[in-house]
């Protein structure tokens, strides 16, 4: 149970500053919280509400709409097997059965050592590479029973830590807008003029 | 990340014009260095050398059709903003989640600068003062590549204050989602970007071009739509419209998945390439796997009514697909061969839309769930003939009247053209019904067989290997 750390508050404020209204930063900040603790804690939601000017109920209201946010701990590795049409046509149901057997949990469950949570997922925009899965949102394509087993073995042995961060971290690279290069966000009501370049002349 | 390059094998095959995938052949296609070495940011420079309204006119005369699903021309859309109301925003739809669709992620991962340049051209032409690039939450690599590209582009003076030393200034803010299909719908995307649950707004009055982000005029464009703009600015509308047909100029990316020999993402010529070309030609998918027969295909993403071999000669031309009873949608073809268990295949899509309903309107929230339950029962061999009528009854409560479907010479049925009437706010509800309707109209005997024989074919047999 944790509020955002000092470093994350700094990052959160930078992110909030990019939007005309602070509340727009809600989802990015929820990701930040999930990255910090592995799931979204109640304290973090209260803290995010304070930062963006919303009640914690409003923060939870938004957060609970989205599949990626977890409100209880999940495995270090979240394994999402796609079950939508293209993957189903190429054998994703068999893959799911195999995965359940290999990990010893049903879809939706977490292994007793806390390493893996297995989930059914919907189309992951990799339909030509079916059946596919994601581990903490990193893809594996055209997955077979054998490649699934070696993936799990590699993850268990810690051989993929450089490539696949722990659950919560989505992108490892974040945007940074240099202070001297950014235009800056302003609330919409403080702008009424047409942008300078709409003067009927070439900008260059 | 290793291993990503070898995938989506189709995209470089053949000798066709490449408007948006020209850099995909380079392993470092996503870097600023490669971009600059291959005409990068030259389209922007050309645009800034002209007045904004001239750039807008050029895009209008090229008829760049929206690639997000509806196919509305981008230049026309930009012109729908109310006169004199500022600020106006650009929201880039990178939420790609429609079943079968796989192109925007490639464009973001492999050529992020092309997208950034496209965003800049749109902002310049339409007077949009800030851009929000909304990337689907589950796409970690795309987020990393676009973030890195933006960081480089800011540092090099291509984005931000006084771009290329001109009076044009705009920020591009990378925003990312958290997993919800319906957020791809443009008004839901805006709700989500405002920090809310991603539920669609009622149109009218909430047409984004008039009342969008923070109630301001907002242009929502798909990633691929915007990725066309750098090439267009550099080569001109005349060169653009010389490719494809008058009503569907240029190229478009199409992902073909399922039972073909070479599934992949192909940049095809708009309006001319036919489904037969795409499925059977060597330069594309090279035929159905194992020499099997084609049973059916979904021509435009999971929401689209299905086609069979009778429709193979239809080209990628919206009005023709519409008259034949379906749509081209988001450029996603899913192919089913003779081994496919049709009711089970339909269920994978209906389950998707039922699961992704935001719950705002009753016909979708309740209807989708019922469609899924009844269909599951039938697929599990526990259905009755009355269930089949029930499926149609529930479907009709979502979409009153005849639902679009394809003609079939063998069955002696003729096409009901697209689109349908609907009782819902957005297309998620009708999309739950589309696969059920297509499957029932075209393959009713498979449903009946399950009921009569009490077949308990498990869902695993969807694409039984042969
Ligand atoms: C349920 C639903 C989901 C959608 N998903 C997407 C999507 O993931 N990506 C997208 O670009 N458009 C999607 N659209 C279409 C958008 O609402 C919008 O029309 C499009 O982004 C406009 O861009 P374009 O004019 O450049 O095509 C979806 C529409 C609906 C109804
Ligand atoms: S049709 Fe479905 S997803 Fe769309 S607004 Fe209604 S309930 Fe939500
Ligand atoms: S259906 Fe599995 S990635 Fe699209």
CATH class of the largest domain in chain B: Alpha Beta
Q: Tell me which oligomeric state these chains represent.
A: heterodimer
Poorly predicted regions of chain A are none
Strand order across the largest sheet of chain A:
2-1-3-4
Helix and strand pattern of chain B? HHHHEHHEHEHEHHEEHEHEHHHH
Number of strands of chain B: 8
Which value, in Å, is the CA radius of gyration of chain A?
21 Å
Q: Assign the CATH topology of the largest domain in chain B.
A: Rossmann fold
Poorly predicted regions of chain B: 1-7
Calculate Rg of chain B over CA atoms.
Answer: 22 Å
Helix percentage of chain A: 25-40%
| Strands of chain A, count | 4
The CATH homologous superfamily of the domain at 75-155 in chain A corresponds to Glutaredoxin
Q: Number of helix segments of chain B?
A: 16
Structural class of chain B: alpha/beta
Can you tell me the CATH architecture of the domain at 75-155 in chain A? 3-Layer(aba) Sandwich
Helix share, percent of chain B: 25-40%
Note the gap between the termini of chain A. Answer: 53 Å
Description:
- The complex is a heterodimer of chains A (204) and B (466).
- Among the domains of chain A are: 60 residues, NADH-quinone oxidoreductase subunit E (Arc Repressor Mutant, subunit A), CATH 1.10.10.1590; 81 residues, Glutaredoxin, CATH 3.40.30.10.
- The longest helix of chain A is centred in the first third of the chain and has 12 residues.
- Chain A is an alpha+beta fold and 204 residues long.
- The model of chain A has no long low-confidence stretch (mean pLDDT 97).
- Chain B has 466 residues and is an alpha/beta fold.
- Chain B is 38% helix and 10% strand.
- Chain B contains 16 helices and eight strands.
- Chain B has a four-stranded parallel beta sheet, with helices on both faces.
- Chain B is globular.
- Bound molecules: flavin mononucleotide, iron/sulfur cluster and FE2/S2 (inorganic) cluster (FES).
- Flavin mononucleotide (FMN) binds next to helix 4 and strand 4 of chain B.
